[in-house]
Amino acid sequence: MKTRILVVDDEPSFTHLLKHSLETAGYYEVGEENHAGHAVTAARSFDPDLVLLDIMMPDLDGTEVAARLKADHVLRDVPVIFLTALVTDDEAPEGFCKRGGHTFLPKNVRLEQLVECIEEHLTHGAPTSAGAR
Fold this sequence. Notes:
Elements: E1 3-8, H1 12-24, E2 28-33, H2 39-46, E3 50-53, H3 62-71, E4 80-84, E5 97-99, E6 102-106, H4 111-122
Parallel strand pairs: 1-2, 1-3, 3-4, 4-6
Antiparallel strand pairs: 5-6
């Protein structure tokens, strides 16, 4: 069974590209939601193992979406990784940065780094090879 990832971002072209890239990698089934206000409903319906979440969205800020996901009794344990243009390559020299207990990836992260970060979150911090879950 493939790992289920929900991508929440207001840019449909970005979510489509990410979905294609992750599914082509062969390890994931990816759902898309382009309206932050619908993210909890989409997550409830899709039942993801992990959520990739943009921060800057017009209808609702990604941090508020994350708070709503964590407040939902069904979704509270689903890991969230912020995938955002607010993080620069300089701030994330290894492909990601951690602040306040959250992981942030720049939107231009390499697929290999994204997969590594996803797998790390799915195994609760223990690095693994992609798909070894």
